[in-house]
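Reopening this ticket.

The earlier resolution said the output was attached, but the attachment link was broken on my side. Pasting everything inline this time so it's all in one place.
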Amino acid sequence: MDKIRGHRRENERYRVVILGAGFGGLWAIKTLVRYPVDICLIDQNNYHTFFPLLYQVASAELEPEDIAYPVRSIVRKFPNVHFLLGRATKIDLKAQIVETDARAVPYDFLIVAIGSLTHFFNIKGASEHVYPLKTLEQAVDIRNQILTCFERASYETDEDFQKSLLTFVIVGGGSTGVEFAGTLAELIYGHMKRDYRSLDFGKVRVILLEAAGKLLPNLPDRLGNYARERLNRIKVEVRFNSKVSEVGPDEVKLTDGSVIRTYTTVWTAGVRGEPALNSWGLPVNPNGKVTVLNTLQIPDHPNVYAAGDLAYLEEGGHPLPMVAPVAIQQGVAAGENIVRQISGKPQVPFHYNDQGIMAVIGRRAAVAYLYNRFGFTGFPAWIIWLGIHLFRLIGFRNRLLVLTNWAWDYIYYERVVRLILPAKPLSEKHQEKS
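Inline output:
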């Protein structure tokens, strides 16, 4: 029991430190606040991001603040929760201290839920030249890049250069890639076509590259085929078995030797864990994820848990998907197991209750696979997707803003957030022609 007590003195409350204000971290807090523990939540951002709608910020459908919510507004109603704005730099597992760039924080129990980073699979030039889609800042960068390309193309006289500006490549045919490709195509062939009447939109290309032979690999073939047909209908070129070998500032090279000339490559192909975790003494697999026991505890460290994208756990011989429902359920489970540990009760193994996977593919179209049994496509799946995402958003204001923007776009075919912020000269955004 001494190892678990750590810095706790007699009659003091247990100190629980949570790294990460994502779904796993927040739902762990919602579980733990009902018990006599002191909680310190640490995150390098002072807001929670609703990642399932991040691509809509990148495609100018939503503002960043529509899907972000201040952490302090979330936790201020809980007197036993303290928020620290900082980035974890080290975990001293022996001393039970989390070191941050702000200060050191001792713990009795620790939940590591810092999410994941973009994985470039060691592809040459990818980390330097692609546009990842993992943070609000990156989503705004993508929006700026798309809008800037159209501004530059509107007066460009070199036809080849203009075509490169108007070619948009998306790498990865999972849910994020499919959803972003669909909403980008609707932005381009709807709103942008009305704004840039002098442009020949026959030169515009939206290309979705998938290394495997199907879209949405976690869904039945019928749903993946529907997604492909729907994307083709809205002028998205879907290329299967297309593996990227190199990315440059103005081109994407594939392993078959073909080259796509483009200034905009959006990367949605994969994620990995934080590289520093290994140096902190946590057990990580080749993808940088932390291997956990079925109780979500770190092996040999019973008072340290991992949850969300960061935690590697298999069920049925397959790793759990890196989606919000997994993180939410693991956050709750980690919190409950800490309470059991404090009470001297045995921990309960985590089992994921798979309620389904969904992906929207533009206006009035989506796929939904619920409870591993029921598959929906088209308008019914779209309605299900809308309802679930609105329900999961944190904050009434955010729900109202998102619903208002969706309704405005749906009724008037107009996206009002087509803003390039912060504004920079076009020469800083694109290389000059040779």
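Reporter confirms the inline version is readable. The two ends are 69 Å apart (CA to CA). Residues 2-116+273-343 form a domain with the FAD/NAD(P)-binding domain fold (CATH 3.50.50.60).
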